[in-house]
Specification:
Shape: globular
Largest sheet: 31 strands, antiparallel
Number of helices: 9
Mean pLDDT: 87
Number of strands: 31
Helix content: 10-25%
Distance between the termini: 92 Å
């Protein structure tokens, strides 16, 4: 009996051995190199030294981006110490970096920065192909000092500080490699003083009450996200992430010149209770959601006679869309919500000094779903480049030493606008459902629902379907706008006739209206049974 129990225990230990396997400093370092390289970074080390249980790497360079835009980090030293099957990693207290690229005018720029992380540590456990890194960064300070553009170097004092960051990063090697992460941070502070030209400046500062970040990634072997996002997605790249942020307070002031060349100064402040963001991208589609708690904003400027201020109770945004080309229609979604929008009295008094209009908080809810055909992969840069290469030559090419061809566009901006207009759009909507459209403002309410689809062999410029809408308080709003003079008296009758054409009363004696719009196959449109087109 004892022999059987011992044999079973040994078998169980063998099955679970990877969970208790040791990791070496070399394996931990290589896992980080593999991770950065899978994202398209290059990693080089200047020197490697192993003394006892500690592996020390010196003069490490990590680079990302291409010739047009690049970020490079230089880490003086990384020490990885083995202890009881785990590895503790300590980065140098301070590291440097440089962001380089070209601005809109084609002029090269260079922005050096430093990152300080005193007291940082990370403990890695697990197996060579399955590691968990638990980190503790008491302080992270990012500092910029100058910016060089062409032959000019200007001060650029910008600072970002993050306190008490802790979390974990889990890596599973393989094809594809898998990663998941979670991180919490304490108070975040930021400040800056940017001066572009003499007399022009922007100063800002603020703080945020911590963040929570989590997510996961599936990265196929050999993928280069920086170089070809589309190919990586087709190979199986998938990313998801969530950011939750606490209360945010920020203020700024600026000085410069108006469009007329007059001196201009101003200041502003934002006070928000928090927000959250989430995203996801894979070959199955892309999604982006955002939500905001209560927030307020105010702005004063020397060229405005009064301060601008507004506040909201909450807001949200939800977008889901396909990214890969297909002859079959694919689903999409677009939703937006804004609740409790209020404007400052100074704004209201511009057009309603007597307070005749209700100033109750306004709201808007929009929810659209449908299907669309994707004519080209959304992240396919080679397809866009091919379209540009086959585009007709611009008339500016006819310029000669004696002058410009009379048919040439007036300037490059006009030519660029013509090129953008000619570029085919990647989406061809097939059908759209209005699940909800609800607007509540100025004492009136509008609600609408419906569904439209492209006709056989046609597109959404001449849809087929039906939309129904309900209105409340619209006639009363027209009366108030007329009394205030915002609708001239000689146009009031025309406005009411237009309302009568599209809307009919719901209940006798009540300010409630309804509309039923029908879009027919032959292109005709009916409103409440009456043809209007």
């Amino acid at each position: 009996m004892k022999l059987r129990l011992t044999s079973s225990a040994l078998a169980l230990a063998a099955m679970t051995a990877p969970a208790f396997a040791d990791v070496t400093s070399e394996q931990v370092w290589q896992s980080w190199v593999d991770y950065y390289q899978s994202l398209g970074y290059t990693v080089t080390e200047g020197k490697r030294d192993k003394a006892g249980q500690t592996l020390t790497l010196s003069d490490i360079a990590i680079k990302s981006g291409g010739a047009d835009s690049q970020v490079a980090f230089e880490i003086p030293q990384v020490a990885l110490t083995e202890d009881g099957g785990k590895v503790t990693t300590v980065f140098a207290d301070s590291m440097t970096g440089t962001a380089t690229g070209s601005n809109a005018e084609g002029e090269a720029y260079e922005v050096p920065f430093t990152v300080a992380m005193p007291g940082n540590s990370m403990v890695t456990s697990g197996a060579p192909g399955d590691m968990t890194h638990e980190f503790d960064y008491p302080t992270i300070d990012l500092a910029l000092t100058t910016m060089k553009s062409g032959d000019t170097e200007t001060p650029l004092p910008i600072r970002l500080g993050v306190a008490d960051s802790t979390g974990s990063f889990h890596t599973v090697a393989g094809s594809p490699a898998k990663y998941d992460y979670a991180m919490k941070s304490g108070k975040i502070t930021f400040s800056g003083d940017v001066s572009e030209k003499e007399g022009e400046s922007l100063r800002f500062d603020g703080s945020m009450d911590g963040t929570e970040i989590s997510g996961d990634m599936t990265v196929p072997a050999g993928s280069k996200l920086e170089e070809d996002m589309n190919a990586a997605l087709k190979a199986g790249l998938a990313m998801n992430g969530v950011l939750k942020a606490g209360a945010l307070v920020a203020s700024f002031d600026f000085a410069g010149q108006s469009d007329e060349g007059e001196p201009q100064t101003g200041s502003g402040k934002y006070d928000g209770k928090g927000f959250d963001l989430s995203y996801g991208v894979s070959q199955d589609g892309m999604s982006y959601q955002a939500g905001s708690d209560a927030g307020s904003f105010q702005l004063t400027s020397s060229d405005m006679p009064f301060p601008v201020n507004y506040s909201i109770e909450s807001g949200s945004f939800d977008m889901q869309m396909p990214v890969m080309r297909s002859d079959e229609a694919q689903p999409f979604k677009l939703a937006y919500s804004l609740t409790g929008l209020t404007l400052g009295d100074a704004i209201w008094n511009l057009f309603d000094a007597q307070g005749q209009l209700p100033r109750d908080p306004a709201s808007l809810d929009l929810d659209l779903t449908g299907t669309t055909k994707v004519t080209r992969d959304l992240f396919d840069q080679t397809a866009s480049a091919a379209e540009d290469a086959t585009a007709p030559a611009d008339a500016t090419d006819d310029a000669t030493a004696e002058g410009m061809d009379e048919a040439a566009p007036a300037d490059d901006a006009e030519a660029a606008a013509e090129a953008d207009a000619a570029e085919p759009q990647p989406f061809e909507p097939v059908d759209v459902t209005i699940n909800q459209f609800a607007l509540n403002a100025l004492g009136a309410k509008v609600n609408a629902q419906g569904a439209l689809k492209a006709p056989e062999g046609g597109d959404m410029t001449a849809p087929v379907g039906q939309i129904e809408a309900q209105y409340e308080g619209v006639n009363g709003l027209v009366d108030k706008l007329g009394a205030m003079g915002l609708i001239p008296q000689d146009q009031i009758m025309g406005v009411r006739m237009m309302l009568a054409m599209f809307a009919k009363p719901v209940t006798e004696g009540e300010d409630k209206l309804a509309t039923q719009l029908e879009f027919k196959e032959d292109g005709s449109i009916f409103a409440n049974g009456q043809q209007i087109k």
